[in-house]
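Contributing new complexes? Match this layout with adenosine monophosphate.
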Amino acid sequence: MKILVANLGSTSLKYRLFEFAVGQERMLARGGFERVTDYGAAIDQCLAELVRGGALQSEQELAAVGFKTIMARGINGCVRLDAAVLAAMEAFNEIAPAHNPPYVNGVRRFAQRMPQTPLVGLFETAFYQWAPEAAGRYAVPEAWYQAGVRRWGFHGASHKFVAERSAELLGRADVAERVRQLYVDGGRRAVAAPELRVVSCHLGGSSSVTGIRNGVAVGNSLGMSPQSGLPHNNRVGDLDAFALPYLMRTTGLGLAEAERLMCAESGLKGLSGLSNDIRDLVSQAASGHTGAQVALDVLVHQTRHWIGAYFLELNGVDAVVFTAGIGENQVGVRAAICRDLDRLGIQLDPEVNATVRAQEAVISPANAPVKVMVIPTNEELVVAREVRRYLEQAKR
Ligand code: AMP
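Output block (do not edit by hand):
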């Protein structure tokens, strides 16, 4: 069975093609296009590349196209992206302006282009369905909660990948299997003692921290929208709700402009006044740029804040995992996050840390109580696996 996973940005389309057979899964091809102005043409190009490269005989061979969809009103989990689901995604366009509109538009183009192929989305909120209720509530009136004002949590595919892979690497096949079956049985599968407690730090263009107990998330630093939690590349992260009305009343700032500033001119870009790319910030901070240093310091501070929250929630941790573009590659950011935590058992081996980029590795000293690990994420694989399961269940 061949499943294409498409990652849709406002002007980009990235893809990976997976093949599943009994007891086997492998990636056959990957690629992508930037500066996309016509999605239909990009889809044509993607399919043509796959056929030309021999990964597909023809597009009819695709069992489905999978998408790492973000959020939809009243819908969670892994679902067929029909007109009703797309409308439910559109209903949350204002909450996820950088994410939902490109997905809705892109999926519609896929539907026009490949009307016979199932289009299936795994929502980024799916991993948090079994977190404790208190972790998902804001202290707002009940009617607001009913309207969707709650902590949803995102980056579910990435943190789920880390939950499973870290369990495998830590010798906990039972917990890894529980993660694999999570969307079937809601994490009810029994696992052996002691508990496996992991904090997963997805640090990239978009960043979040998640606590994971025995493979099941206990919460995520992202709240109601993908603009919350840690500072992102150009999105704001957590902000006191009263800041916005204050600015609007006292400066005449309009709502649309405020939304634009929070979605495109804030985060690391806003803090540094320089760039949304961590590579620029690291090099400029080294040459004395104050804003770049402040941006790095805030990212580190906020990441430590959330690691601390889950350290307490989980009654300590067995592993802290770094993943995504920054987590996998930025040696200095990892070192700054783990600084002076030895009394909590969290330590880095500086020499090992300095050599690890985008590869699986333990970067703590061999005898440290907490394993600090780098695990390159594979969100597309998580999507493909769930889409496969969806197709197999739909057949029954
Ligand atoms: P992501 O959203 O996971 O692609 O992460 C994007 C962020 O990771 C950007 O701030 C990049 O500067 C950073 N990043 C990606 N690749 C590298 C790399 N090889 N070295 C350093 N930083 C990187």
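Reviewers usually confirm one structural detail per submission. For this one: The radius of gyration is 21 Å.
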